[in-house]
Amino acid sequence: MKILVAVDPSQHSQEAVRFVKSVEWPKKSELFLMHVIEMKDAPPLLPSGGPSNWDRVISQARGKLFTEAKTFLDRTKQEIFEERHLPIQSLVMEGLPGAEILQVVEDYKIDLVIIGTRGLSNVKRFLLGSTSDWVMREAPCSVLLVREKLSQVTMGKTSAKILLATDGSSVAMSTVQRLGLLRCTPPPKVTVAHVVGKPAYLEGWYWGKGKAEFQQLAQHMLEKAEKDGASHLEEISHAVKKLDMKVETVLTKGDPAEEIVKIAERSKAKLILVGSKGFMGGKPVPLGGVVRKIARYAPCSVFLVRPGRTESDA
Fold it and tell me: What CATH number should be reported for the domain whose range is 1-148?
C-alpha cells in the first residue's frame, strides 16, 4: 500500500501525522511525505542594487524555502519512523498544492492520500479548504481528510466512534476493508448507517400520471428501498463484526448527505467512512454530490474510500 501524507507545520496537518504514527499499516506499505512550497510564503523581497538583482534575490528566497521544507520533512520522517518502521520518502515540490499532490498521486501510483483540513471556529459547520476539496474531487484513489482528534480512534480511546455510511452499492465492502486499518484496543464503536432517499425521477413521473397512482408507486418504491436497505445493513454490520468491532445500525429516510451529517453529530463520531466508485471501464468516476456534501459539512474527519482500478472494474 502506498500512502501519501501532505504535511505542513499547521495543527491539522500535525494531527494527520499523529494518525499515521498510530496505525498498523499493511506489510510492505510505503509512505511518502510531501510538502509543497509557494513563493507567496517567502518573506518580502527587497533587492538592492536595482532590477538586475531580482533573479538572485528570488533564487535565494526559493532556496531558503526548500531548505526549511527539507528540514521539516526530515524531522517529521524521524518522528514517524520511531513509531512505524516503514520505507519513507520525502518530496518537496513547488507550485499549487492541489495540483502537485495530484501529480504525485499519478506518478507514484498512490493508494491513499492523507491531508489535513481545517475547520473555522466561528461557524457551526466546518468548511473544506480549496486544496482539500480539489484533491478529494480529482484523486483517483482513497482520500482521508483529517480534522482534529482523529488519532483518538486508533490510540485506544474508549470514546472513539466511527460512522460508516453505506448506500447499498458494491463499494461498501471496500469501505469495510479500509475500516480494518483502524483496529485498536479497545476497539472503536461503529455505527453503520443507510439513508433511503426519494428517487429524483419520481417528480417527473408525477406530472405524467395522476396523484393517486404517483402516491401508490412512491409508497411501493419506498417500502422496497427500506427492505433492501435493512438487508444491506445486516450484511455490512456482519462484515464489521468480523473485525471484532461493536456495531449498531441506523436506517433512516431523507436527504442522504444531510442525514449522515446529523447522525455524525448526534453520535459524536470522530470519523466518517464513505465509499465512492473509483474506476469504470478503466477511467476515474467523478465524485458524487452526496459524498462532497458529507465531506464539506461533516463535523469530523472523513475517509473517502475509492476502490483500486482492478477492484472497481472487476
Answer: 3.40.50.620
Question: How far, in Å, CA of 218 to CA of 233, rounded?
Answer: 22
Torsion of CA 18, 37, 147, 114, to 10 degrees: -70
Entry pTM: 0.82
What fold is seen in the domain 149-314? Rossmann fold (3.40.50)
DSSP state of 198: -
Q: Give me the count of residues in the chain.
A: 314
Cα–Cα distance measured from residue 93 to residue 270, given in angstroms and rounded to the nearest whole number: 31
Quick one: CA dihedral 205, 210, 211, 212, positive or negative?
Answer: negative
More confident call, 201 vs 302 = 302
Please tell me the distance from the alpha carbon of residue 179 to that of residue 168, in angstroms, as a whole number: 17
Q: What's the half-sphere exposure (Cβ side, CA atoms, 13 Å) at 137?
A: 13
